[in-house]
Specification:
With 239 residues, the chain is of the alpha/beta class. 43% of the residues lie in helices and 22% in strands. The protein has eight helices and seven strands; from the N terminus they run ααβαβαββαβαααββ. The protein has a seven-stranded mixed sheet with strand order 3-2-1-4-5-7-6, sandwiched between helices. α1 crosses α6. The structure holds S-adenosylmethionine. S-adenosylmethionine (SAM) binds next to α1 and α3.
């Protein structure tokens, strides 16, 4: 079985790769997921707490699609913060936030998910979409998410997983092995980036394994919600 040691480059360098492909990132997300990625991020919204005046944090925020999906048409989000080490992704995210007139409520800053620049118990919800797979020390990031969440606060993690159905699983594997690196290369000129995407999906401890890790990190009320037959999963947990 492949492990993180077999990746085309170490996870600690992934943010540099995201900087390199930033200009094509959103376009390729839409193309490779046939528009499903936007729907998946929007699905996070229904797992937010019910309270008003929420302050939320999105890790590995990239071009800010999660924050925009959660805050748009949702006055319950009072303030949303996004962090990511890839400054070029953040700069595109800031432009998107401004074009939607959300700059009064959403702000982005450069930071690492493994050492968050926020005080304990600050956020009603902490989210991360397609990011946890890229963090070198997964457990450290989960502990940081736990630390900055308020007591009773939610943690929402959206990540790729693998379908259970054998036919869907085989088609999914083939798609990741062939279409993703090829189309990724054609449109971004970066073969490694989209090979890395495939490899990190293959090696990520999804499903029950991930729920177990969340439990070990201290989270309670952990529930996975499968999207598109398990191509992606939303993990909901509470501090
Ligand atoms: C696949 S993108 C996801 C971006 C965004 N969440 C989305 O839904 O489109 C992964 C992001 O993880 C970021 N990343 C990589 N290492 C990180 C780290 N140590 N801490 C926080 N973010 C990191 C990358 O820079 C990149 O923007």
């Amino acid at each position: 079985m492949k492990t993180d040691k077999d990746l085309v480059f170490p996870k600690s360098d992934s943010w540099k790769m995201f900087n390199a492909i930033a200009g094509r990132y959103d376009f390729l997300n839409r193309l490779l997921s046939l528009g499903q990625d936007l729907r998946w991020r929007r699905a996070l919204k229904k797992f937010l707490p019910d309270s008003n005046k929420q302050t939320i944090l999105d890790l590995a925020t990239g071009t800010a699609d999660v924050l925009i999906a959660l805050a748009r048409d949702n006055p319950r989000i009072h303030k949303g913060y996004g962090i990511d080490p890839a400054v070029k992704m953040l700069s595109l995210g800031r432009k998107k936030i401004a074009s939607r007139h959300l700059e009064g409520r959403l702000s982005l800053q450069e930071a690492d998910a493994q050492a968050l620049p926020f005080s304990d118990g600050t956020f009603d919800a902490v989210t991360i979409a397609f990011g946890i797979r890229n963090i070198p020390d997964l457990r450290l990031a989960l502990l940081e998410m736990y630390r900055v969440a308020k007591k009773g606060g939610r943690v929402l993690i959206l990540e790729f997983s693998k379908p259970e159905n054998p036919f869907l699983k085989a088609g999914h594997w083939l798609y990741l092995q062939t279409v993703v690196p090829l189309v990724g290369f054609l449109f971004s000129g970066n073969f490694k980036a989209y090979t890395y995407l495939n490899q990190t999906i293959q090696t990520f401890p999804y499903g029950d394994r991930f729920c177990k890790i969340l439990k070990q990190m201290g989270f309670v009320n952990i529930k996975p919600y499968f999207l598109m037959g398990g191509v992606a999963t939303i993990y909901v947990a509470q501090k």
